[in-house]
Q: What sequence folds into this?
């Protein structure tokens, strides 16, 4: 578990420079959450196993540790970021968000805070507990908060027709509708072939409900300087826009 | 901000040895939360002031930092502790808890986790934000969760007729009813005189609603080894019991 502090600090700086008026930040688990969640099979639900229960505790602590780096970097850039803990405010049912306490987030946004959430180990009505992905949380919050748009920071320039890591000449898709995207995903049959979009597909499938609610999603390369800044400003930026169509 | 790790670790060990079946832990702000909350006047509510807003962010981050020491120490003793963030799950109205997301805590207890909460900077429907004390949270949760009892760890043996720091011969009150306590507090007129009970009075006044709901409170000296252990076990222990009467 070692955070890429340079990237976190640069992104905090870009967010501070862009100063979007009403922003919710959501980050994933990275090297903090994923290995523990996997080791203790948290996503498979509670199996009446003491070591797994302790593993749930450890997974949430790891996510809090990563979240602390993110929020501290934002505060350092004078962004009034406030950590909002999904495991304290969400309960899922069979892995899907069933209930979420929205009042703190709504009040935070009213005052001008930037709520910062994350993929987390959460309680589940059917399965005891599970993993809630940052992607599911993003689509849920975008819809409930009537967001103008979703910006996804990724480690590729956007959506490609083929995995750019395997075929560097694969063209970037600059604009795609959900309809076109669904057709594209149907063509992908073999499980391993989900990698053709550079691992983006799983993320995007989670976002579809929000996009279908009329909230466009923009995928940009967060590892390249200024892309997130340009996206937040609404400037022209290299990336993929996904719209309802 | 420096935690007394020795005390935290000893208490985690005592909790682990006592193994109470259904435990919620709540800690205060100590040297982490209080100085920041005071510096930024968080308890006075939101005053449309950017530095105060950043101060709210910092206060919550400081509480998360202290909470991390507590939860990590518990996990180290094989207690499946899970941090529950009050600012993510509570909104107050004029400083009193108005709404709280109970489902995660109820689910955590069902599985056998130990939820760990704390005094926190929280959102407030009327005042923008405020400070929620661990004491108010304790009384609220004890009532909503139908707790058997409340155990308060303090730095004195219990409630004294006079401040034991000023008069070491002041006898310990072993048992007191809410009625007797109210009479006693009425005798205390001068503001400074609230110190006669060794600073306990403010804490106890917050607990009265829970005690009146039939949940006895036991005050023990957490700085002395084994007192918290004995209290959790239900053994005879030096301290003060407050009951409805």
A:
């Amino acid at each position: 578990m070692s955070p890429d502090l340079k990237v976190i600090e640069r992104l905090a700086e870009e967010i501070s420079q862009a100063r979007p008026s009403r922003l919710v930040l959501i980050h994933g688990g990275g090297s903090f959450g994923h290995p523990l969640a996997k080791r203790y099979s948290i996503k498979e639900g509670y199996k009446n196993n003491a070591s797994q229960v302790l593993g749930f505790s450890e997974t949430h602590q790891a996510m809090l540790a990563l979240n602390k780096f993110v929020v501290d970097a934002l505060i350092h850039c004078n962004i009034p970021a406030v950590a909002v803990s999904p495991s304290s405010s969400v309960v899922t049912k069979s892995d899907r968000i069933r209930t979420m306490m929205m009042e703190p987030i709504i009040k935070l946004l009213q005052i001008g805070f930037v709520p910062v959430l994350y993929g987390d180990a959460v309680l589940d009505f059917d399965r005891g507990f599970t993993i809630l992905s940052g992607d599911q949380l993003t689509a849920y919050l975008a819809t409930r908060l009537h967001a103008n748009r979703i910006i996804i920071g990724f480690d590729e320039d956007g959506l490609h027709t083929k995995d750019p890591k395997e075929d560097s000449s694969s063209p970037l898709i600059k604009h795609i509708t959900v309809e076109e995207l669904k057709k594209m995903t149907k063509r992908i049959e073999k499980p391993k072939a989900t990698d053709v979009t550079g691992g983006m597909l799983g993320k995007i499938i989670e976002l579809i409900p929000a996009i279908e609610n009329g909230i466009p999603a923009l995928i940009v390369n967060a590892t390249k300087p200024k892309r997130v800044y340009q996206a937040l400003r609404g400037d022209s930026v290299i990336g993929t826009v996904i719209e309802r169509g």
Chain B has two domains: 1-13+21-147, 149-245.
